[in-house]
Write a structure and sequence with these properties.
Elements: E1 7-17, E2 20-30, E3 40-44, H1 48-51, E4 66-73, E5 76-77, E6 82-91, E7 95-101, E8 109-112, E9 117-124, E10 133-143, E11 146-147, E12 151-157, E13 167-171, E14 177-189, E15 204-213, H2 218-225
Parallel strand pairs: 5-12
Antiparallel strand pairs: 1-2, 2-3, 4-6, 6-9, 7-8, 7-10, 10-11, 10-12, 13-14, 14-15
């Protein structure tokens, strides 16, 4: 590049070309005896390949895609499941990736959002458990300058609490899967005898149900119900 001498050097004027940052100028000054004619100087070191190119626009974090809004309706579904409508707005994005935690049928999915808006419909299956299901719906905007941080919304699916005619999938202590169907509700119900009575101000409620072993042979069913 140029002769090497004992001295100090400073890199300055950061520029960009072809996707990389570089210093397009260096300055130097000598501590001792310097070569003629100057003790100090500046030299341009712009790569030749970049001299005739249009300068690259360097994108900072503020120019990256961003999810402006995320709306999921309804926020609570019944235990039989149903449809969720997912809509929102994004900026500086060409596509938006929609995911769910825990993993849900129909997701992940990538939709176009170059117009600044995105929408999709998601069908959730029934909740066969006795617990409320919490599902996190997240959206990440993706564009030429990178991807955004995800924006999330929590939706819930009500627990299958055993309404009349409902069938619950449960397991016994041996791990056998059973289908329990509620066939009737007796309210109030009578105690088994005169000694088994509810406290004053309370009442007994009886639930009639049928049990069916799932995926077991008849011999195994006899063991389960014995």
């Amino acid at each position: 590049m140029f002769p090497s001498y004992r001295g100090r050097m400073r890199l300055s004027h950061v520029a960009a070309c072809q996707g990389r940052l570089y210093y397009d100028e260096i300055s130097w000054w000598f501590l001792g005896r310097s070569p003629a004619p100057a003790r100090t100087g500046t030299q341009n070191i712009t790569p030749e390949a970049c001299l005739s190119h249009t300068p690259l626009v360097v994108h900072d974090a503020a120019a990256r895609p961003v999810v402006l809004s995320l709306i999921v309706t309804p926020k609570m579904l019944p235990p039989v499941g149903g449809e969720l409508k997912i809509t929102g707005r994004a900026k500086r994005a060409s596509t938006c990736r929609i995911t769910a935690t825990p993993r849900t049928v129909g997701l992940p999915q990538t939709v176009r959002c170059s117009s600044g808006r995105f929408t999709m419909t998601l069908a959730l299956s029934k909740n066969a458990t006795l617990n409320v299901e919490r599902i996190r719906i997240s959206v990440t905007a993706i564009g030429p300058t990178g991807r955004s941080s995800p924006k999330s919304v929590i939706v819930q699916e009500a627990a299958n609490v055993g309404a009349l005619g409902a069938t619950l999938d449960v397991h016994d202590f041996n791990g056998n899967e059973l289908a329990v169907t509620v066939t009737g509700i007796v309210d109030p119900a009578a105690g088994a005898n005169e000694f088994e009575q509810p406290p004053v101000g309370s009442r007994f409620v009886a639930i009639n149900e049928t049990l069916a072993a799932v995926g077991l042979s008849q011999s195994r069913r006899d063991i389960v119900y014995r």
